């Protein structure tokens, strides 16, 4: 069982570079979807890459996460607005997290660290 955490990142405005740096700083693999409306492709890329987590950024924090849930059945939490809310969502079993624009290194780092901890405890 690998402890490498794969995280797909999709941002409505084609950003997401900061959160990707945080994922990588924590030892994870960031798969950053390029281009506008990338949040709407998070579920597709997670499925094809067999990723552990997905992060969808848009103004509301819901569209990409809800598409991933509807198409692939991923457990999601959306309309998240803080790093702590994301960590709590992981603890509650979500694997796709929908945020308003929160492209920060801290978010990527903390999510990978928490997912790794949950996995070690057998809670994923």
TrEMBL record:
One of its GO terms (biological process) is carbohydrate metabolic process. It comes from the Bacteria. SUPFAM superfamilies: Ribose/Galactose isomerase RpiB/AlsB. It comes from Thermaerobacter marianensis (strain ATCC 700841 / DSM 12885 / JCM 10246 / 7p75a). InterPro entries: CHP03577_EF0830/AHA3911, RpiB_LacA_LacB_sf. This is Uncharacterized protein. GO terms for molecular function: isomerase activity.
